[in-house]
Amino acid sequence: AEPPTDFRIEKLIALRNPKGRPVLRAIVHNTGRRAVDLTGRLRLTHGPGGLNAGPFEANRGVSLPPGGSGGVGVPLSAKLPVGPWQASIALASGRVHRKAEAAVTFPQQGGSPIVSFTGALASAAFPRSGKIAGAAIAAFAVTFAGAYLIRRRLQESRR
Q: I need a surface site. Which of 8, 49, 103, 155 has the fewest CB within 10 A?
């Protein structure tokens, strides 16, 4: 029997490329035991003033090894309004098809590259667990304390 093919779309990110064009990037993880070659389409609905856009073809040539993760980009027109939009992406590798949806708003030119997520993708991308928040605060405190101690030792060694 052939090894199983499978993947999951972990999150959607709305950003701008270096040329200023909006791009929707799907972060995908290969959960199967065979490489996946991804193709797909994006549709944007419920946009500003009730606009709908698409389908837009995803960039081809994205292959992920078993256990690998990567991004599948969908370049869009620079004239596309920033949103908000309801993004729906359908990706496929052979006979395996997966879909994901998220509310996205593309950043303004020169703005932040990542936007907020809603729905199931939001909880997967940004857990709201108190344990995770506590761990992040602890990591920050340890990093800050370490930097302080290194700086103090450097100052003492210069004396």
A: 49
